[in-house]
Design a protein that fits this description.
The structure is a homodimer of 612-residue chains.
Chain A: H1 3-27, H2 32-48, E1 64-67, H3 73-82, H4 122-135, E2 142-147, H5 154-165, E3 171-177, H6 192-201, E4 205-210, H7 214-222, E5 231-236, H8 259-269, E6 308-310, H9 311-325, E7 329-333, H10 337-340, H11 343-348, E8 353-355, H12 360-372, E9 376-382, H13 383-386, H14 390-398, E10 404-408, H15 426-431, E11 437-439, H16 444-456, E12 461-464, E13 469-471, E14 486-489, E15 496-500, H17 503-517, E16 522-526, E17 529-531, H18 535-544, E18 548-552, H19 561-569, E19 575-579, H20 590-596, H21 601-611
Parallel strand pairs in A: 1-2, 2-3, 3-5, 4-5, 7-8, 7-9, 9-10, 10-12, 11-12, 15-16, 15-18, 18-19
Antiparallel strand pairs in A: 6-13, 11-17, 14-16
Chain lengths: 612, 612
């Protein structure tokens, strides 16, 4: 590396600092000092190391960059402006409603793969991308820039562990160790050795560097890909580096400079600042683009009415069935594949299955990495353990990532394992992800066909599966749609509409039989799609039953099916009476629990009679 | 340690194995092999090391034991039966509805402090207990038994890191390294050195032992408390140890033995099995019991109508105000104390404040540890980052722990930071915790007084706070209750009832003014208590406004205020029209965003007019 290049890159780093300061001062908010500490690292990566096409951020074999410390967004935006992708003046619109240069990066921007801003999540996504590169036989590398404070997040260590186990030597982490957190210094300050010992113990190759010495940074980067293990650059830096009156001082996190401070800072940085425009950027290598067809349809299912099959098992069958013809599909699990039945896919397509062990946060992040690289990832575990990854799911929503989740073992119907293993709030969690689709099938046919829908639909989709075996009630050629529902029983003079899903569908049908014998008709609707709700179907049925609806769900009363129906239909005058699990449940047999918690046929009959 | 004692404890370990097998076989489900691998460790702890009063599990200075690998519940139950606390025959009622010996431990049992069963959470609780022992000047030690598979959970490393930083040498972890996970072997098998390097790098003293050699186990335990750092025993074990035809074999996770297998297994174990009854157990030392008065009331607040104060800041003021007189109160934060204002407590009462750094899962677990030791912990961070700890919050609900949460920076009203920092689903998450109370104050007076309520109320309580400054609208002597609401505007002939909370209260009042000028009256209700909802107040108001209600919230439409009102009142014929943030939001100024996402005064006016 000759001197001119180093001086140029140093100069670009200062230009990035200037941009970050100017943008945040113009916005009146933001994190300029967090940008300054990482500016040399980012300049080195973007202008001295990474192989990519600046004019084509989506190019399939570009090196990938994830700004895990998402609050340094202005720095990332500045780097891309300096590649010439867009005019630098745009940077001054940071954080404005009319600009996609938001406070934290989102994939509304072409050069951002995943939303960041909730710390500790980027490395998991990086693991997913690195795995995807292998799967696609591409040689792009994935670079994840983290802060030191964010290394307190356990999700970082979940990702680090898996990367070490899977020997992801195409994954490079950089930790910007500027010793100052948000509210106070980090516990380890500039004791870089502590970080080194930790990453080494998790299977990483480590390099301790001066994060402001471009020679060192570039020298270490030149040796990426050596050996089998992922690499982490542990960079000692100063928060606010380059600004003499701010650097390494407390009280400057998340604080934009005043106009006066901005002028002083820029005066210090301007003399050495250089533009990135025109600096030659190494292109990616010319490996074949993975072209994977999306199948027009999937093979049919073949069940018999009355077959007893758990929807969790049907999920596994479906995953293997579609996986055989749809090579976009990959699967992940958290050491529960024998319970979720993702093992059926894992056994047939091991190269497309990632065991994530007992680490659900990372599993969701890894799935997100696959999704943003164009795969269709299905991540499965017990529904209750998906709450472990709620923040990652939330952020995947901001990323508008094409993720599929299957949560098994829902409700009290799991029985004896007890409440710690029961998903009772997962419908609420899944519904609150913007744009999500939420499925809750009752039988194997609908479960499999909804998996087909999930794979074909672009967006976050959740499938809620049950532990007990349930009877197949749908024909193999029945169709199931996003926003659909199954009207299973309906006759003239029905007195109330019962909306059920999953195991409670069978309870509702039993209740219908009981009431029929007493001369009372009820409408039974299978709400296999909880979001978007089959609003018109339910409303039409309700209007024929005096606007009376009973919802019944193996879920807490908050956030689930009952809230969904009431939330959408009360405005139309529909009166919704909720049956749900109204208290913390206990271990016991499934049937006992469904009775005790008032979601069985007897409870439905009792409620119906009380209302009529 | 003389030979007789070793043989006795070995014998007790085998008795514990027998009990675990018999109980799970009787139940037809459970995890006997996970119990067998840990039986020697548990026998050593309970009958050869821990200092406690078996007849008084709640005694304040007992050593504490947390079974983090909660699926080994039968082993824990067996240990306590062998202390004589209850008859061993009770063990055969494992997992029955009528027995509190549930599938995974819950504090319905006197000898269980916290529910476990969702892996990776016990160490955090142990950190909280160890900190609490220090705070209370007690010398009890806290022992946390984990599995190897569960060490993949990042939360374990969050806890380990904090324990190392805080030098918790009264905390002892034991890892039952039996190499076999649920669906397959763990990645590291019996490579104990990998676990050792990791824990050492996180600041722990480590001891590698044969987990079935009672001499080794007891020898290492005898040296607890040495040095400054927490201690971890890394125990090499065999899953199903003691049963020749099962031990160390795959395919035995979560699988009860058949009657025939049970008989063969017990035949192997019985000859050496010994009872624990009568074995002398070292008592705790006689240190003074921390007796902390619960104050009958808290000092008053002193704001002026019209003062502009953010509810997040009022939270900070309240915490310091009540903390001054209520020594049960402790606080925790995740490197956001300058944003959540918990710093006001931290600065005045540093000995009762725990900085948890950027690790929210652990923060919630640590808070749970304090709660079960009788403190009143307030854990605060941004509301959106509380979703990182959703599983810990869920399990705290199963523990019925007395936890208080404050989530700040809710909704689009935070402005330019953008969606990754906005809490938009937190009301849904908090509502779905069984027995929870959910507060969402609009001004400083109500915020502070609701904090008073939180501290006095037994159970999980959540306070949702906002970033912007809002005007004080309540008098200092106004009262706020669980299940209450404020009727802010009401007159005869009101046309619609608007239910708002937080920042939207001010929008509703502005809308009321606008409509008033046009001769239209609306009722405005401040739903400062979202759960339990002020159902009767809202219903009564609605009935006077033709059953028409508009809810308006700075939250997604799913799971929040609108769903709460519709979910409870649609059955009564109330028609609820929801205003909420119906799409993924963008960065921008708070006022711009509230307008764009239809939750400002103009949107309320428009909706009201459309309905009337």
């Amino acid at each position: 590396m000759n001197d001119i290049d180093i001086e140029t890159i140093k100069g670009i780093a200062n230009q990035l600092r200037i941009h970050s300061i100017a943008a945040t001062t113009a916005a009146g908010s933001g994190h300029p000092t967090s940008c300054c500490s990482a500016a040399d690292l980012v300049a080195a990566l973007f202008f001295g190391h990474m192989r990519y096409l600046p004019k084509d951020p989506h190019y399939y074999n570009n090196d990938r960059f994830i700004l895990s410390k998402g609050h340094a967004a202005p720095l990332l935006y500045a780097a891309w402006a300096e590649t010439g992708l867009f005019p630098a003046e745009e940077l001054l619109k940071l954080r404005q409603l009319g600009s996609d240069l938001e406070g934290h990066p989102t994939p509304r921007l072409s050069f951002v793969d995943v939303a960041t801003g909730s710390l500790g999540q980027g490395l998991s996504v990086g693991v997913g991308m690195a795995l995807c590169a292998r799967l696609d036989h591409l040689d792009y590398r994935t670079y994840v820039l983290m802060g030191d404070g964010e290394c307190a997040e356990g999700s970082v260590w979940e990702a680090a562990s898996l990367a070490g186990i899977l020997q992801l030597n195409n994954l490079i982490a950089l930790v910007d160790i500027n010793r100052l957190g948000q509210s106070q210094p980090t516990p380890f300050g500039h004791d870089i050795a502590t970080y080194r010992r930790r990453f080494e113990s998790f299977g990483w190759r480590t390099e301790e560097i001066d994060g402001h010495d471009l020679d060192e940074i570039l020298e270490v980067l030149a040796a990426v890909g050596l050996g089998t293990q992922p690499l982490v650059l542990l960079a000692k830096t100063l928060k606010g580096a380059g600004i003499s009156f701010i650097q390494d001082k407390e009280g400057w996190h998340g604080r934009a400079l005043t106009k006066e401070e901005e002028a002083r800072a820029i005066a210090e940085l301007q003399p050495t600042a250089k533009s990135g425009v025109g600096v030659p950027i190494p292109p990616p290598s010319q490996l074949p683009e993975p072209k994977i067809e999306t199948p027009a349809s999937y093979p049919p299912v073949a069940y018999k009415i009355g077959d007893k099959v758990a929807t969790r098992e049907a999920f596994g069958n479906a995953l293997a069935r579609i996986g055989a013809v749809d090579r976009r599909v990959v699967a992940l699990d958290g050491d529960t594949m024998n319970s979720t039945y993702s093992e059926k896919f894992a056994q047939r397509f091991p190269e497309r299955f990632t065991e994530c062990y007992i680490a659900e946060q990372n599993m969701v992040g890894v799935a997100t990495g696959f999704a943003v690289r164009g795969k269709v990832p299905f991540a499965s575990t017990f529904a209750c353990f998906l709450t472990r990854a709620h923040d990652q799911i939330r952020v995947a929503g901001i990323s508008m990532a094409n993720l599929k989740f299957a949560g098994s073992h829902v409700g009290v119907s799991i029985g004896e394992d007890g409440p710690s293993q029961m998903g009772l709030e997962d419908l609420g969690m899944a519904r609150a992800v913007p744009g999500s689709v939420v499925f809750y099938p009752c039988d194997a046919v609908s479960a499999e066909k909804l998996v087909d829908q999930m794979a074909q639909h672009k967006g976050i989709t959740y499938l809620r599966t049950s532990r007990p075996k349930t009877a197949v009630i749908y024909n193999n050629d029945a169709s199931f749609t996003i926003g659909g529902a199954g009207v299973l029983r309906q006759s003239a003079n029905d007195k109330v509409t019962v909306v059920a899903a999953g195991v409670t569908v069978y309870e509702a049908l039993k209740a219908a039989d009981t009431l029929q014998n007493e001369g009372v008709g009820i409408t039974v609707i299978d709400a296999y799609c909880v979001k978007p709700l089959a609003k018109e179907v339910i409303k039409a049925a309700a209007q024929k039953t005096n606007n009376l609806v009973i919802t019944v769900e193996d879920h807490y009363p908050e956030g689930g099916l009952g809230d969904a129906v009431a939330g959408e239909l009360s405005a139309e005058g529909v009166r919704v009476h909720k049956l749900a699990v109204f208290e913390l449940p206990h271990s016991g047999k499934p049937e006992e629990l469904m009775s005790k918690y008032g979601i069985d046929a007897a409870a439905i009959v009792k409620k119906a009679k009380a209302l009529i």
